[in-house]
Amino acid sequence: MKPFLKIENISKKYPNSKKHALFDFDLNIFPGEIIAVVGKSGSGKSTFLRCVNGLTKTSSGNIYFKEKNTKSMSSKEYRKYRTNIGFIFQNYNLQNRISVLDNVLTGLLGQRNPLMTTFGLWSKQDKEKGKSILVEMGLGQHVNKRADQLSGGEKQRVSIARALIQNPKIILADEPVASLDPPTAKKILDDLKAKCKKRKIAVVINLHDVEMALRYSDRIVGLRNGEKVWDSPSSEATEESFKQIYQKDE
Amino acid sequence: MNKKITILFFVALFLWACYETEVSFKSLINGFADVNFFISEMFPPDFSEVSKVFPDFITTLKMAFVSTFYGAFLAYPIAILAANTVTKTKFLNVFFRVFLNLVRTIPDLLLAALCVALFGANPFAGIIALSFFSFGIISKLLYESLESLDENSLDPIRAVGGSWLSKIKYGIAPAVLPQFLSYCLYVFEINIRAAAIIGLVGAGGIGTWLNINFDLGQYNKISSLLLTLFLIVATIDFISSKIRKRLTDS
User: Fold this and answer.
1) Virtual CA dihedral for A132, A135, A137, A138, nearest 10 degrees?
2) Which residues, 6+ apart, have CB-to-CB distance to B5 below 8 Å?
3) Which residues of A touch B153 (CB under 8 A)?
4) In whole numbers, what is the pLDDT of chain A averaged over residues?
5) pLDDT tens string B13-68
6) Which residues contact B221 (CB under 8 A, 6 or more apart)?
7) Within this chain, do residues B173 and B83 fall inside the same structural domain, yes or no?
8) What pLDDT was estimated at residue A249?
9) Is residue A51 within 8 Å of A12, Cβ to Cβ?
10) Which of A137, A162, A223, B16 is the most exposed place for a label (fewest CB within 10 A)?
11) Dihedral angle, C-alpha A46, A47, A48, A53, nearest 10 °
């Protein structure tokens, strides 16, 4: 099987910072696999995810989507590339003052006519699709509520629905359960895994919790000070590997 | 030490400003003698004509309402172009900020006088003048709100390849709507008073009657008009501040 997303030697250095946030990072991502990225906070996990879909610009290195370099894409092609990527944020990043359904539909903004969507004109199919995904996520009774009326766990489900409606090839999840209590976190990750496996969507998920990472991923990638220090199937990850990832800096 | 110098500086500045502007207690005391005359003339207020000129009170309210509406309608797009969080073209930001500063430099009375000269002594002239005035305040307040928006809240829309219009409709508009409405109400409150004042230069509404009565020396009629205006303004301020509180709390 060939990787559909190839990340080649990407580095990121923020202005005003001496150190690289991410350095010479490589990763091949295959369809449908779930990769957990682990590491201490500040190890570059978020920077990595944000570089993949261009929320943060890389300083160097290349990203290939289906063998096409994202750097050589026109802005229209890049927009199209982004529609293949769902993103789940730690703090949900929903629009609080619009309805749950509208929040889910924003996942389609890159794929629909901007003039139509600006006037709130969504096709019947889009609306039905949004509703059915919300029902699938167990939020059927909340469709027309305002997003700020939901609990944390429910909000994260909405943001998963927002990613799923894109029909993405991959979902990037940046610490999706860090703000939730453990039982809710477990339920959310169970759901995320099940829905993505069912649709054969690849997932790259940043987690700081090692147990969760082992439990939900097919593969574990360890980051330390912006560099990849571990990459193996989850079944091969040992206590030793985590020590290496989390050891104190000399 | 620094503190003392600061205090000394401001005291000196104050005294100098008083000297230069010829503030004197003697003129103040002399002036008070006439105040006595005005007050005795104003009381008791003569309410006999209030019902007759009541339609002009309504005209004043209408002028305030319509001009707030026009002002807000113009302010929204201009504020968006002036805010660097939304519009990423530096030239446009600077251009519209300078333009907004210019608009706010023109005193409202001068603007009203100018409009009367252009459009004749009628409420329409007043509405145009007040629309400019409202536009200046709302756009300034709104663009400052837009600049303080958390840019991360737009990430979900950027991440899926949403357009500039999509960002406005699904990211910015819902987030600033409460502040925007609150500014509109606030400006409406100011406009009622301002509409009465610009009536003095012939721009229609109740100000016209204030002017006429002043010229005729019928101060007891002026006081009745002012008391009625006070009641109207106080009532609207009360309601509007309640609404504004609710808007910004949620």
Assistant:
1) 180
2) none
3) 93, 95
4) 90
5) 998 888 888 777 777 777 777 777 777 777 787 777 778 888 888 888 888 999 99
6) B45, B46, B48, B49, B209, B213
7) yes
8) 60
9) yes
10) B16
11) 100
**Is B74 in the same domain as B120?**
yes
pLDDT at A150: 92
Q: What is the pLDDT of residue B208?
A: 80
Q: How large is the ipTM?
A: 0.85
**Nearest CA among B192, B76, B209, B218 for reference residue B138:** B76
CA distance A36 to A45: 10
Classify the phi-psi angles of A57: left when phi > 0, otherwise alpha if psi is within -120 to 50, otherwise beta.
beta
Could you tell me if B22 and B122 lie in one domain? no
Reported pTM: 0.79
Contact A120 B162 (CB under 8 A): no
Among residues B130, B128, B132, the alpha carbon closest in space to that of B74 is found at B132
Sequence-ordered alpha helix ranges (H) in chain B: 2-20, 25-42, 50-82, 90-105, 108-119, 123-147, 155-159, 164-166, 173-198, 206-216, 219-249
Q: Is omega for the bond preceding A114 within 30 degrees of 0, making it cis?
A: no
How do the domains of chain A map onto residue ranges?
A: 1-23+34-44+58-67+175-250, 85-167
Which residues 93-152 of B have a C-beta within 8 angstroms of A?
A: 152
Which chain B positions have a beta carbon within 8 Å of A107's beta carbon?
160
Q: How would you list the strands of the sheet with A34-38, edge to edge?
A: A85-88, A170-174, A202-207, A34-38, A219-224, A227-233
Which CATH number characterizes residue B62's domain?
1.10.3720.10
Range of the domain at B84: 48-249
3.30.70.20, 3.90.850.10, 3.40.800.20, 3.40.50.300: CATH of A85-167: 3.40.50.300
Q: Assign domain A1-23+34-44+58-67+175-250 to a CATH class.
A: alpha beta
Any CB–CB contact under 8 A between A144 and chain B? no
CA distances from A40 to A4, A215, B249 (A): 28, 18, 37
- Digit-coded pLDDT (tens) for A163-206: 999 999 999 999 999 889 999 999 999 999 999 999 999 999 99
How near does any CA of chain B get to the CA of A221, in Å? 23
